[in-house]
Amino acid sequence: MIDRDQVRKVAILARLELTPEEEEQFTTQLGSILEYVEQLGELDVSKVEPTTRAIDVSNITRQDLLRPYPDREAILNNAPEGDGDFFKVPQILNVEE
Is the pTM of this model over 0.70? Predict the structure, then answer.
C-alpha cells in the first residue's frame, strides 16, 4: 500500500504542489490503482499473445493518384522564389564532384 509520504515524494519529483487534501485524495486513489494492478498480476497470461490493441485495426487509405492541379499558376505565384515551372529552394546538400 502507498502512504502519504510516498505521495509527497512523487509530487516533489513531478514538481507538483499538493494541498494536504490532495495528498490524502491521491493516496487513496493511487492505493486503489496499485491494488488493482496487484490483482492483474495474479492472472495467468502465459497463453495470451502479446498485443498492442484489443481489437484488430487496419489503416484505410485511398489510392494515390497523380492529377494535374487546375490552377498551377496560382501555386507558382505564391512561391517565394521560382524558376519557370518549378519552385526554387535553398540547397541542403553539399555535393562535391
Answer: no
Q: How far is CA 63 from CA 34, 60, 89, in A?
A: 47, 10, 29
Map the chain to HEC letters.
Answer: CCCHHHHHHHHHHCCCCCCHHHHHHHHHHHHHHHHHHHHHHCCCCCCCCCCCCCCCCCCCCCCCCCCCCCCHHHHHHHCCCEECCEECCCCCCCCCC
Query: What are the tens digits of pLDDT across the range 65-92?
Result: 888 888 888 888 888 888 888 888 888 8
Q: Which DSSP helix (H) or strand (E) runs through 83?
A: strand 82-83
The whole-angstrom separation of Cα 1 and Cα 86 is 66
Say what the pLDDT of residue 97 is. Answer: 62
